[in-house]
Design a protein that fits this description.
CATH topology of the largest domain: Purple Acid Phosphatase, chain A, domain 2
Shape: elongated
CATH class of the largest domain: Alpha Beta
Strand content: 25-35%
Structural class: alpha+beta
Distance between the termini: 69 Å
CATH architecture of the largest domain: 4-Layer Sandwich
CATH superfamily of the largest domain: Metallo-dependent phosphatases
Number of strands: 33
Low-confidence stretches: 13-167
Length: 674
Amino acid sequence: MVPRSAAVVLAALALAACLLCLIGVAWADDEPLVTVSASQWTGGYTAQKQAAGQGAAGGESLDEGASDIVDGTATSASPKDAENPGGSDKGTADSGGLSKGEGNSGVCLKGGGQSGESSLEAIASVDSSEGKGVPGVSAGNEMASGISYRDMATSGAVDGNAPASGDFVYDEETVESFAWQTCQLPADLDGDEAQESLVTVGEARDVRVSVAGVDVFASPDEWRVFDAHVCDLDGDGADELVFLVWKQGSYGPYRPFWESGADDAWSQHVFVYGMRAGKIAPIWMSSALGSYFAREWMEPDGTLVLEAPDGSLTFWRWGSWGFKLAGKTRAERISLLFAGDVIAHQGIYEAAYDRAARAFDFSSVFAQVRDYISLFGIATVCQETVLVRDAAKRSGYPEFATPATIADALVDTGFDVVASATNHVNDRGSGAIRETLGYWAEEHPHVGVAGLHDDASDVAAPVIVESGDFRLAYFNLTYGLNGHALPEDEEYLVDTLEDKDAMLQEIAAVQGEADLTVVILHMGEEYSSVPTQEQRQMVEEAIDAGADVVVCSHAHVVAPYGMLTTEAGATGLVYWGLGNFVASQGDIACQVGGIATIELEKVPGSESMAEARIVSFGLEPCVCHVGKDGAAQVYLLEDYTDELAAQHVLSSEGRPLCADDFRQAFEAGIGETG
């Protein structure tokens, strides 16, 4: 039996909630909805609760506390007509889910449309207190070129070290460090089958809706709009607007009665707007999502997908009570690594000789980076010189031949693919090429050797590497062989520019069979960070044929990197030069290199994200330390100390080198990257 005093309290609360709802409805009818500010739902369904598995899939709401108040307005997922069928009339902060019934799935639209007349009312101006635009950002959930997804996903903080959870308090500086972008999307907001409206996410981190160049909606000043989508969520022929917004505070001005005060932390929200009575009005507003979502997108059927930094995804479908959970999964990811040229000059291989074992042991060369390289799913390196089993045949510049045990050290370090089509690969003739292929096949058959073939039918063919659910194709080509021509009947041994057309055909043929196509080009001007015209042309042709990533070697110095769009409109990621990974040359620029890192992802069960896509890329600086005795060791630049630099063979007593000298050489090489 409920005590009489408790019953009285419950009745009073219910009466107060009903009055609040009535007041909200009146406010909604009287106020110009175009000026609605950062209103949100009371209550908040957090990512932590999702992770704990609360609620059945398909039955959870994006916003668990089921209040119907949007800035005091009862507009919970309500249709655009005045009768508000499907919207709640309770006006209470019920603890139940918001998923009562299914709405008709609409179609998510992004792309060109046609102009037409609109019934939307233009606004001449909106002052900042009512909601003029300043916010805005990431278009189409794409990362800005060169922005590290790993850094962004850990919280978006500049240093990338903050935890990505609801426990982390975001401040404005952190939010501003995100990879903001812009977009323009056509929309048919009044359902007349003409996309007369233009939705713009601008550089000011705002969103505006315009018709014939006149703004009819501007987001509030306190919003920072991360992304926008145009979708017919409810299938009625008129588009809705879905905004992912950063703002201060978990709730709008009408927070739940159990919350004693407002918070001012920055948090993410999902806001849905549409046309009501000729104006852009809020339809559904979430409170703080509770955790940082590094990416989001909408499927063609209108499903909203939110991705956490750890790759976990939740799928949200629109129902008559707003977005509700339709499923959970995890994105499949793989990390890729590419290291530059390995050239064992004479001093390096002589220092690697173990007199006690009477053998050459190169394991110490890579000891300082072994743990780092082993973190990556597939690691690739350019082994520039041929291998010889008989160490007596070893030689340095200008015609190289390296003790084959360097291959053992590379495998032990974690490399899975070696690019071997280089200008030095024929230094010792076709017999040494065959010996190199034989050593890899016999001693390390699981390692892919790109650019070399022991069968004429394999000319320009890729190495196919499978890891988990990913399938990647690696091509490798060299500009030439330093004047050492192969016999006509053995030209198939090495892929060169003469095989370019065959390789382009192979690149095109592998599309649809590989998740990612990588082309490694050994070309460019030595000791120059500026790509040659021939190099540029080859890179563009490879991308036009279907290459997703092009990595250049040979120049011995680092060069810029970033996304490239060709004249034909194809896009690919290009590293114009990784420099040396292992070498002993007489310039500091040749002793600092770059390790390319790429993170690849695909989403099972996603129509739009089923194909693999690059979600991050970067270039980790490294140093090949060569001591006074000629011994080489590779370090990440972040681990390289002033004490080590002072002992480098290039350092002198009068002007000892420091770690910053190598950093400056690296930064000078990559220049204006992106």
